[in-house]
Automatic annotation (TrEMBL):
Coiled coil: none annotated. The keyword Hydrolase applies. Residues 148-307 form the Glycoside hydrolase family domain. Keywords: Glycosidase, Hydrolase, Signal. Residues 1-21 form the signal peptide. Belongs to the glycosyl hydrolase 5 (cellulase A) family. This is Glycoside hydrolase family 5 domain-containing protein. Pfam families: Cellulase (PF00150). The keyword NAD does not apply.
Amino acid sequence: MRKHLSYLLMLLLCISTALYAQDATPVVGKVWSIAKANAWYKQHKWINGADFLPSTAINQLEMWQADSFDAATIDKELGWAAGIGFNTMRVYLHSLAWKQDPAGFKRRMDRYLSIADRHHIKTVFVFFDDCWNKQAKIGKQPAPKPGIHNSGWVQDPGDPNYKQPANFPALEKYVKDVMTRFKADKRILLWDLYNEPGNSNKLTTSYPLLKSVFTWARAVNPQQPISAGLWAWDYDKLNAFQALNSDVITYHDYEEPQWHQRVIGMLRSHGRPMICTEYMARTRGSRFENIMPMLKKENIGAINWGLVDGKSNTKYAWDTPLPNGEEPKEWFHEVFRKDGTPYKQEEVDLIKKLNNIK
């Protein structure tokens, strides 16, 4: 049954993308040519790394607000990442942190980029996000709820904010201000404009903001490519827009290798470089040992969710909370413990081998 469903969803995506391309899907601004995108990709060695939140932050606001920006922990943990050959981190921003202090927010971004650059790590910055808690508040962030995955992660711009056109001018100012400041910064690999649009049962109500953020980004015309990752194969309208407006195809896949391989085959039809910006959920069969070598063989970027066990609690599975806070039998995400020792030595040995690190 699952096999047939997977084939059906992929078929729907291929058909709907073609139909929308011919009919309803606008191409916003000037998308990079396929030749330009592939030439850009060839300039970089194999892209691999993690979605990064320092272990001392529960969410994007705690990472970026002045009172809780933790440069020492960022430096330490990116050092652990560099030690196993990771060369890219995907990092979420938050519009409220910018709204509170635009100049300070950009200074902290610059400081983060300087730290990452010292470790020879490029950055993928993410603007908007439809996942987890609906509303965010500036100020001190809540403590983690024991045993609950991403208990304090917050959407951006939040719900119902994301679908209210009155909010769009302020969001446009935010996106354009940040991108204009860093649009020629070689420390930034790529701009990821919207994480998982349509998640949290928003579906196509996220489409107006998705279309708008691409419009704003194209107006800035950064030197880095822009993208928004595909993640739900039955979201045909969103998928078509994302695929047709992205310079580089990014996507998420937490499935076992045979299903992930079929997604790769489907997305290859666009002819563009590909980066998997989320994978690796051990208890779902997506592991370093069975996915990362496949992505390297396919010359696809590999960015797994999570680096260091911390306040995000993403060592716990999405749908398997342990409210007493006990250690899960097997970690869902993350590579390192808080003291920098690997969760599984054989995993970091593999990562180092794939990155030619002795």
